[in-house]
Specification:
By secondary structure, this protein is of the alpha/beta class. The chain is built from six helices and six strands, in the order H-E-E-H-E-H-E-H-H-E-H-E. This is AIG1-type G domain-containing protein.
Length: 214
């Protein structure tokens, strides 16, 4: 795989508890809630959207579900990249997926670079790998390295990304009719004024932070 779907251990790391099954790949969007100090957090994780065999219809269905669960729209996409595997074709497919959400998606994206699997692999070398470098540039040079990353730093950078966009969500107008069936416990932050959603896509996955960043 050239891109990681949000690994269950990373999802559990973010939430601070074991809520995702680390043994199985999801076949539909998963939405989990957690609490970080005075801040509510919801993580939305989708199936692997870069599988070559996935149909366009199924891909659209997953994206619609992600949008519906993050209504009124994503605030931050967290892109988890495996540097030594990322090839040009996968980079282009990822960009296409983000553009399906909205042309604004890259302004709301943060790249999280996984630790290279090969012990001899130097991160500095991979940072010059054209597809990875292109994605980092496309995402306005917003990136973190997963090795040694601590949760406060990750949440701070997500909050900064939201602030840089004035707290505004990505406008997914193409899917504006898909949110009308949102269950009662998933009601939009438009009805809950204190909520500020942050949704991340990792082939795509999502974060939804409830309280505003300061």
């Amino acid at each position: 795989m050239s891109l990681e779907r949000l690994p269950p251990d990373l999802g559990n790391f973010i939430l601070g508890e074991t809520v995702f099954n680390t043994e199985e790949e999801p076949d539909h969007c998963l939405r989990e809630k957690g609490q970080l100090q005075d801040r509510g957090i919801v993580l939305i994780n989708t199936p692997d959207l870069l599988l070559p065999e996935i149909s366009e219809h199924k891909l659209t269905e997953h994206i619609e579900n992600c949008v519906r669960l993050s209504d009124p729209g994503p605030h931050v996409f967290l892109l988890v990249l495996q540097p030594e595997d990322l090839i040009e074709e996968d980079k282009q497919r990822l960009q296409s997926i983000l553009e399906t959400f909205s042309g604004q998606s890259f302004d709301h994206s943060l790249v999280l670079i996984s630790t290279p699997r090969e012990r001899s692999g130097l991160m500095e070398t991979y940072m010059e790998h054209p597809p990875l470098k292109d994605m980092v540039i496309k995402c306005r040079y917003r990136y973190l390295k997963r090795k040694g990353l601590e949760l406060p730093e990750l949440l701070t950078r997500l909050g900064q990304t939201a602030k840089e966009n004035n707290g505004e969500h990505v406008s997914c107008d193409v899917f504006k009719d898909t949110t009308s069936t949102l269950p009662a416990d998933h009601q939009s932050p438009k009805q809950i004024e204190t909520e500020t959603p942050i949704t991340s896509a990792v082939k795509a996955a999502g974060l939804h932070l409830v309280n505003k960043f300061h």
